[in-house]
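$ ./design --mode recover --in tokens.txt
reading tokens...
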């Protein structure tokens, strides 16, 4: 049955680590590879992942309990589901999330939206659009486009706009090299 969650279905708890062994994220899934592909599309921190561990649990309930415990005791860098003192995950009784959790989630959603926008701006740059063209097409200011490029760089990605390895920069370097080569060739022929 599509869309239903069977609490008795075999579920894994996975941990994602960077090259230095820092715990980046803890999550649960019945299909970790699919979940990781989703992270790769949506999370800038994904490029920092170098190792994963997976432990299987007999059901979703057990896996989520293990996830709660791991988030609380291991403090992964990018998890933001609940504060450590929330006993019932992710809600505290029937009152809903705590105000701090709501604020943190809103901030996380904002950052996620900015990350997605940064990725799209980078795709536009890789397609050959200039900062001005991206700004015009998106309704952003050029300074906002440049901010998004820096955001991608700081998040572990590489922006085609803000790095010296952008297409525009590469074209300028190639043009300069071609001019130098042509000049040397002319000088060689004249000598």
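writing sequence...
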């Amino acid at each position: 049955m599509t869309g239903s969650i069977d609490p008795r279905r075999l579920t894994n708890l996975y941990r994602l680590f960077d090259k230095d062994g820092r715990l980046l994220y803890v999550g649960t899934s019945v299909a970790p590879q699919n979940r990781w592909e989703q992270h790769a599309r949506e999370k800038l921190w994904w490029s920092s992942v170098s190792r994963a561990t997976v432990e299987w649990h007999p059901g979703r309930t057990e896996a989520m309990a293990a996830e709660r415990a791991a988030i609380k005791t291991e403090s992964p860098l990018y998890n933001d589901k609940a504060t450590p003192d929330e006993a019932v995950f992710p809600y505290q009784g029937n009152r809903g999330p705590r105000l701090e959790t709501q604020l943190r989630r809103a901030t996380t959603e904002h950052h996620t939206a900015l990350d997605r926008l940064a990725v799209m701006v980078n795709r536009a740059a890789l397609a050959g659009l200039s900062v001005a063209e991206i700004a015009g097409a998106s309704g952003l200011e050029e300074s906002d486009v440049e901010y998004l490029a820096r955001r991608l760089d700081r998040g572990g990605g590489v922006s085609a706009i803000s790095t010296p390895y952008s297409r525009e920069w590469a074209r300028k370097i190639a043009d300069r090299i071609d001019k130098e080569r042509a000049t040397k060739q002319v000088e060689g022929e004249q000598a």
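exit 0
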